Every structure is written in C-alpha cells, then in structure tokens.
Amino acid sequence: MNTATSASDGAKGSVRTPKTPNSPDYDVVVIGAGPYGLSAGVHLQAKGLSVRVFGEPMEFWATKMPAGMLLRSPRVASNISDPTSAFTLNAYEAASGIEPRVRTPLETFVEYGRWFQHQLSSCLERTAVLAIRKEKSVFTLHLENGKSVTSRRVVVAAGVGPFQRKPAVFDHLPPAQVSHCYEGRKIAEFRGKRVAVIGAGQSALESAALLAEAGSEVEVIARIAALRWIGMHPRLHHLGPISKMMYSSHDVGPAGISRLVAWPNLMRRVPLGLRDKMRKRAVRSAGAPWLMPRLTAVKISTGRAVESAESRGDELHLKLSDGSERRVHHVLLGTGYRVDLSRYGFLPAEMAANIGQLDGYPDLGAGFTTSIPGLHFIGAAAARSFGPLLYFVAGTEFASRELTSHIVRNPVKSFQ
Q1: What is the pLDDT of residues 269-280, one digit of tens each?
Q2: Backbone angles phi, psi at 342, to 5 degrees
Q3: Domains of the chain from N-terminus onward
Q4: Phi-psi region of 380 (alpha: psi -120 to 50; beta: other; left: phi over 0)
Q5: CB 251 within 8 A of CB 288
Q6: How far from the centroid of its chain's Cα atoms is residue 317's Cα?
Q7: I need a labelling partner for 205 at 20 to 30 A (CA). Which of 225, 297, 323, 333 fits?
Q8: CA separation for the pair 125, 403 (Å, rounded)
Q9: Nearest 10 degrees: CA dihedral of 362, 247, 394, 42?
C-alpha cells in the first residue's frame, strides 16, 4: 500500500490558489504533528491545497506520557481521521500483524500515528515553529532549523503540552521532587520510593497503578469526597435504540450529554454558561473501571488537599487539609491542563493579545476561525467553543472536515 500518496490521489479537482511570483509558499501551514495536525494535513492535502505540517509526529504521546498506559477511549473512538476512513487503527494493526486489544496500549497508538503520517509524504517537516508573524494577509513562520516560510493560513494543532496545571503550593519546589504526570518521567525511576499522586482523574489513577506495579509505595490524594468511575451504569448501554439516543460512539460524557457532545456545531450555539457546565461535566475527574483491581495496593485519601509542601533533603513534607502529614520522595501531579494561549511560545504576545479569547481559550467561529483572519485553532484549544469532543482523538474527524470545508469555501483571494 502506498500510503504516501493515497490521500491526494483521491482528491477530486483542486482548490489550490494559483501561484504568482510574490505568492506565499503555502496555502496552509499546520503547526503540530499529533493526531489533530496529521489528520488536518491529510484532509487539506486531499483537496489539492498546498500544505506543510511542522512538528515531530506523535512527539507528545511518545515522549511525555508514561510507558505502559492504555487509551481510555474505546477503539471505535481512537481512529485518526482521513478523508476515506481507510487509515484506521484496525487497518494499521492488520498491516502490522498486531493482534487488536480491547484497550489499546499507548505504544501501539504512537506507532499507529507514525504509520498514519506517511500519507503526508513530503508535506511533513520535522522541525518546530519558533515564531509567527503576520503582515497584511500573509503569515511568516520562523523555524527551528533557521529557515522561514510564508503561508496564507495557519492552523494551530500544537496540543496541550504547555498547559500543565500545577497547584501553586508546589511552585517553589525543585522539578526533581515534583513533576506533572505528562512530563515524560520514567516510572521506573520511582521504584522503592514513596510517591504521592495528586488528582482523581484517569491520568492520576493510571499513573498510580503503574507506579505501584513498578514497586513504588503510592498514595493518591484527591479533593473530591470519593473517587468517580466512568460507565458505572452498563445497563444503559444495552438498551438498543434507546442507548443510541443517549450515548454516541465517542463515549464522551454521561447519558444525554454524550449525544450532544457528538455535535460540536450544535455545542457552539449553546450559551457559553451552559456549554461550560456540559463540558466540565463530560470531562470531570473520573477513572475507567478497569483500573479498580490495579489500585488495590495504592492508598487512596479523598476529601483532602495539600496545604503546604516543604523540601527537606531527599524528602518532601506535606501537610494536608485534615491536619495530617506525609513524608514522600516525590509528588506526581495528575492535575490536568488549563488552556492558555499565551503559553504557546511561537505566538508573539501582541498576536496572542489580538486573538479574541474565553479565559485563555481562543473564541472560535465556524471553521475554527479566530479574530485574526487566516488563523485557526483545532484540538483541545477549541474545546471551549466546540465542546469536549475536541479534547479527544475522536474529534479529529469533525475538526478536519469542518476546517477543510471552511477553507475550501473561503479561499484567500489575493496576496497583498
């Protein structure tokens, strides 16, 4: 199978803007080569657009997530979208001779993304974008390799890496003693050590399980009164047509909300206050029930928080809100992310300030457009506007099709 050309071979017609001597280098540049960036690049390329995707394929997934993790999303919601739905997780496993598993290992998904990226062929460049500038209707992107390129449009699909949420109580402590669970620390480093995991979501709970299995003494400390588990009403998923009315195949959110989340353009029209409530309810801290038996060796302390933390030699002394204290060698933060565009290093402060925002998220219109013409955001940064589906790989289908359709219908007519 020639995956390098299959997407563009299926394109019917071309919407590529005619080149002139002063034309930009590309119609569209995509920043980021994770699932959203790869998918958008393939969809845009299939429409005949001149596209360049910048970034190391699947870098965050491969280098920042703990080895041994399993995808929480069901298999049907773990496909990276391409225009013909030919490059699915199932197709990768069949082509690679991998036996499908109910819960997909992180390592399999990373290799799937790298297999998927071959559709982009020479449209992918493994270098980072350092800065964006815009003059009149054209963007200039300065690259890590010392070069620069110009483009009519820029699509930011740079992921959540810069957005780690770290409670202020840990700000003054050295990175050797406090880290976020998605910083790429090796679980094996903590063998034989006492580790406090802060948080009650999937990342915190699965990290705790992995640590315990690797030989660490682990305690989960969570603010909520009791741990929550996803899908604890299995009968609701086996009611035939009624279940399909309550849940989408993406499996994001509880009954009812799950169905609304599956329609991001509808979510965008819901009043912001209600949309926020639905988004937060859909992705509130909870773990997959298959983690339960793996946490039997983990101490779980709920209904309390860390009020102070002090480094004393090779230990951290933690004081909790219930008055109790802990002595640990490391604190691992499973405290999630908070989108804040100002933390994207390639966005100049003046450009970020000119983007309409909703508490750090870009305020997006149809086609993931921003208040800066030609600049788009997809993935987690779009979740405040389009709903929580955009936090998940399953959102690549909607995002890529909506983005591509908008760009095709609204070509940049001239170079000024």
Answers
A1: 999 999 999 999
A2: -65, -15
A3: 6-163+337-409 (3.50.50.60), 168-228+285-333 (3.50.50.60), 234-282 (no CATH)
A4: alpha
A5: no
A6: 33
A7: 323
A8: 21
A9: -100
Residue 232 is predicted with a pLDDT of: 60
Local structure of 196: helix, strand or coil: strand
Question: Over the stretch 178-214, which tens digit does the pLDDT of each residue have?
Answer: 999 999 999 999 999 999 999 999 999 999 999 999 9
Q: Please identify which residue in the block is written with the tokens 């640990």.
A: 328
Distances (CA, A) of 43 to 84, 110, 119, 348, 390: 9, 20, 10, 28, 17
118 phi and psi angles, rounded to 5 deg = -65, -15
Whether 118 shows a pLDDT value over 60: the answer reads: yes
| DSSP of 78-99 | -PPP-TTS-S-HHHHHHHHTPP
What pLDDT shows up at residue 6? 45
Q: Is the pLDDT of residue 94 over 60?
A: yes
What is the helix (H) or strand (E) element at residue 197, kind and residue range? strand 194-198
Phi and psi, residue 228, nearest 5°: -110, 150
Q: What is the residue type of 231?
A: G
Give dist(CA 96, CA 91) in Å, integer: 9
The strands making up 325-328's β-sheet, listed across from edge to edge, are 306-312, 315-320, 325-328
d(CA 60, CA 391): 14
Helix (H) or strand (E) holding 306: strand 306-312
* CA dihedral over 176, 182, 183, 187, signed as positive or negative: positive
**Beta pairing, strands 148-156 & 375-377:** parallel
Residue from 265, 236, 266 nearest 251 by CA = 236
Single-letter amino acid, residue 330? H
